[in-house]
Design goal:
The complex is a heterodimer of chains A (about 575) and B (about 200).
Chain A lengths: L1 H5 E3 L6 H4 L6 E12 L2 E2 L6 E6 L2 E6 L3 H4 L1 E4 L3 E7 L8 E6 L9 H10 L2 E2 L6 E2 L5 H4 L14 H12 L6 H4 L3 H4 L8 H4 L1 E2 L6 E2 L21 H5 L21 E6 L4 H14 L20 H6 L4 H58 L2 H21 L11 H23 L17 E3 H12 L6 H7 L3 H4 L5 E4 L5 E4 L5 H15 L2 E2 H8 L3 H14 L2 E5 L17 E5 L12
Antiparallel strand pairs in A: 1-6, 2-3, 2-4, 2-13, 4-5, 5-6, 7-8, 8-13, 9-10, 11-12, 14-16, 15-16, 17-19, 18-19
Helix pairs in contact in A: 13-14, 19-21, 20-21
Chain B lengths: L9 E2 L5 E2 L15 H22 L3 E3 L1 H4 L6 H4 E2 L4 E2 L2 H13 L3 E3 L7 E4 L4 H14 L6 E3 H5 L12 H13 L3 E6 L2 E6 L5
Antiparallel strand pairs in B: 1-2, 3-7, 4-5, 6-7, 8-10, 9-10
Helix pairs in contact in B: 5-7
Classes of the chains: A alpha+beta (about 575), B alpha+beta (about 200).
Chain lengths: ~575, ~200
């Protein structure tokens, strides 16, 4: 029977996700289905749920999940048909299976274990994790070199699949699972080792030069694995007895009694098309991304050699990143819970306070009063360390003092970064040594670069700024322009000082472009433009746009010089034209 | 504030004395600062109306800033400092003038062309009445043509019909004028008034 020979019984009492390989994923599930073995209904499989994964199709029987559930490797499916149903007949999906059997009853368990267990690559000594699908477990996850002593079952699956596109020859080409299910490695280590011509050391067949003396080795004499597999000696001893005509179509039908057939069939087709079971697991650590996106890419791009290793490292880094994001999501969930924590702590705090108040009356006042603040402080400070604030309880003076001292220290440090250390006439020059005004982002970046470690977050940075004038000489202050740009500046760049200076300069030396002002002040053009704009807002200066030139304006004196700044010629003007 | 920039007045070919601010390039740029801009608009309004009276111009269009060779070249452009008034700025100035009743959009329901009130309609009404009195044409029927194109040139020569109509209707309110339909259009009869 096709059903018995191609499927593998699974314990349906275990949830399906636990049955999956590590690199396997569930695509879709549908309940209320029955199974036809060939043309007849399979009596034991008439009510259950089917799952389609990247590698397999699961049927979990709802009546006796332990006995009648099974899994079918998608690699066995050669063709699928879809029947939409008519009147009382339910929609069905017909699965045409490749002719021969690969699993037989008891032999599977040993193979499964062999495929599942963790193993060490003989080339790069990478410890491959257990639980990968057979195809993925056949090669080393790091260096991509095929596993030499792998149980033949995994190889047979691969070769079977390769030949499944030639239905007529499959039976003769593929290896019966039963023949290799004894579990002995079909690959004899000793026979294929290469003896070093110089020192006679038996080297691993994959090595090109002797491990001991580095003499170049002769090419391996044994045949490639695949050829060995199809050698006549390893052919199935006898095809299993089949009570049906061997040429009869080997089909399984899935009958959808509760609908869902169309979606199921579409997903099944897609899973069959993507052939994820062929993929050897390299790059599967990036599985968080959609595995269906580029399955072929994973197959075609080099999965061995340095490139392969690099790719593996890369993809595992990607996987880690995804994992990290997930972890951060957990943190976000914790943040949501933070309110509850604060409430809880507040309650605790109140209780402590109440207890100490009552205790203060009864017991020795000295003891109680000293015990209370300690506990309460602990709660409050641990909360504030977590970044949570109790709204009703003020931060204790201790913490305030600590924080203030910290901020002040930071301000002192920032002052050094900005103005250089003042005590010795050092060569160390601060960021603002030559400049009177500097953008805040530059300061923040420069400071953190100077710190190197324990970087300062912007919020703390902003807390430090108000303290800066106390530690700088001349005092450095922060200023926000109308555009939202924030800067630090020395006294000559306060609004009033710059405004007076600019107006005087324009009145004395005539109109200037922002570029000229920037040059004269030794500041960047952007900052000059911001400073000038602030003065214009006050109405102390006015503009002459070269766009109003008769020749069409602009571009005559070069880009960026379009606007000339004038002292305000309008203020105080009295009409002196014709009356 | 004092300027070293020597801004000086200038007399145009038509004999108009341009104010010194007309030779300041910022005068031709719209100022973002509202206070500065208000002064600039005020000066532009005064310049336009003064020049209009000087040249007896009644209409100013935004197009006048777009083309050259029109009546307004002397004030909308300043070749000496290579500056001209841009159409958007002129449009802005016109709307400010309309808002202050120093001009009116003519024809109505558009904003590209204004009728300038270098004399208010009230003043025009008085001018019309005193002209009719002076020329002894009270109580006679005058066509609009008689007023806008009299045999002897008057202050009313060339006055646009919409403005003339406004002036007449103002006189009509005090009983000093009466609109009369005549064979070839409209006419008006002016009275001594004071009734």
């Amino acid at each position: 029977m096709a059903l018995r020979r191609t499927t593998r019984s699974v314990d349906g009492t275990i949830p399906v996700p636990a049955l999956l390989y590590k690199d396997e994923e569930i695509y879709v599930s549908q309940d209320g289905v029955g199974i036809y073995d060939g043309a007849q209904k399979s009596p034991n499989h008439q009510a259950g749920t089917v799952f389609v994964t990247t590698h397999r199709l699961f049927y979990i029987d709802s009546k006796s999940p332990y006995k009648h559930s099974f899994a079918l490797d998608l690699s066995h499916i050669m063709q699928t048909d879809y029947y939409a149903g008519l009147f009382k007949s339910s929609p069905k999906v017909t699965l045409h299976l490749s002719g021969n059997s690969t699993t037989s009853g008891q032999g599977t368990t040993g193979d499964d274990e062999a495929g599942f267990e963790s193993w060490e690559c003989e080339v790069c000594a990478y410890r491959n994790p257990p639980g990968l699908s057979p195809a993925a477990a056949a090669v080393c996850g790091l260096c991509g070199v095929p596993r030499t002593s792998v149980p033949s079952s995994t190889a047979s699956v691969t070769s079977q699949h390769l030949s499944s596109s030639l239905p007529s020859s499959t039976a003769s080409l593929t290896v019966s699972r039963s023949s290799s299910s004894t579990g002995t490695p079909s690959f004899d280590e000793g026979s294929s080792s290469i003896a070093c011509p110089a020192c006679t050391f038996l080297n691993h067949p994959f090595l090109r030069s002797c491990e001991i003396c580095s003499t170049e080795l002769p090419p391996p004499t044994h045949q490639p694995r695949r050829a060995m597999k199809s050698a006549p000696s390893s052919r199935p001893s006898s095809p299993e007895s089949d009570d049906q005509d061997p040429t009869a179509p080997r089909i399984i039908k899935v009958s959808f009694r509760k609908g869902g057939d169309k979606a199921f069939y579409a997903v099944l087709k897609r899973s069959l098309k993507s052939k994820m079971w062929e993929s050897n697991g390299i790059g599967t650590s990036a599985r968080g991304l959609d595995p269906r996106v580029e399955p072929h890419d994973q197959n075609t791009v080099g999965k061995s050699g340095i490139t392969g290793i690099l790719r593996t490292v890369e993809s595992s880094a990607q996987g880690r990143e995804t994992g990290m994001l997930d972890a951060l999501q957990d943190l976000e969930a914790l943040m949501v819970k933070a309110k509850d924590m604060v409430r809880l702590a507040a309650e605790l705090n109140e209780k402590l306070t109440a207890a100490s108040a009552s205790g203060g009356v009864q017991s020795t006042p000295g003891l109680a009063s000293s015990a209370e603040p300690e506990e309460a402080t602990f709660i409050r400070s641990s909360l504030s360390q977590l970044g949570l604030q109790m709204s009703n309880a003020p931060v204790t003076l201790d913490m305030m003092k600590d924080e203030r001292r910290w901020i002040e220290e930071l301000a002192r440090e920032l002052a050094r970064v900005l103005q250089g250390s003042s005590s010795p006439p050092s060569k160390e020059r601060g960021m603002m040594k030559d400049r009177g005004v500097i953008a805040l982002d530059e300061v923040w970046g420069g400071w953190n670069r100077a710190r190197g470690v324990a970087l300062i977050p912007p919020s703390t940075f902003l807390l430090v700024l108000p303290h800066l004038p106390h530690f700088t000489d001349p005092p450095v202050q922060a200023r926000t322009f109308a555009s939202g740009l924030r800067v630090l500046h020395t006294p000559p760049y306060t609004h009033s000082a710059f405004s007076a200076r600019l107006s005087g300069m324009l009145a004395l030396t005539g109109p200037k472009t922002a570029m000229q002002v920037a040059q004269m002040e030794g500041i960047t053009l952007g900052l000059a433009a911001e400073l000038i704009a602030a003065v214009e807002t006050d109405g102390d200066i006015c503009r002459d746009d070269a766009a109003a030139a008769i020749g069409g304006g602009g571009g005559v004196s070069g880009g960026g010089a379009e606007v000339m700044w004038w002292a305000n010629v309008f203020v105080g003007y009295t009409w002196d034209g014709q009356q | 504030m004092t300027n070293v920039m020597s801004l000086s007045t200038h007399t145009t070919a038509s004999g108009f004395l341009l104010p010194s601010i007309h030779s300041a390039p910022p005068f031709f740029t719209q100022q973002p600062n509202p206070g500065t801009q208000a002064i600039a608009i005020e000066q532009w309004t005064r310049l336009i109306l003064t020049y209009a009276r000087h040249r007896r111009l009644f209409v100013l269009r935004v197009e006048d800033a777009e083309t050259t060779g029109n009546d307004w070249d002397e004030i909308l452009r300043n070749e000496r400092i290579n500056r001209k008034l841009l159409p958007p700025y002129l449009s802005h100035i016109l709307s400010a003038m309309v808002a202050k009743d120093l001009a009116v959009y003519e024809p109505p329901r558009q904003t590209r062309s204004v009728l300038l009130y270098w004399r208010s309609p009230d003043e025009w009404a008085e001018t019309l009445h005193s002209w009719a009195t002076a020329t002894g044409q009270l109580n006679t029927i005058l066509t609009f043509y008689d007023i806008t194109d009299p045999p002897i040139e008057s202050e009313l020569t060339g006055i646009p019909i919409p403005l003339l109509r406004k002036a007449i209707s103002i006189l009509g309110k005090t009983g000093r004028a009466q609109m009369i339909g005549v064979a070839d259009g409209e006419g008006v009869r002016l009275f001594a008034g004071g009734r």
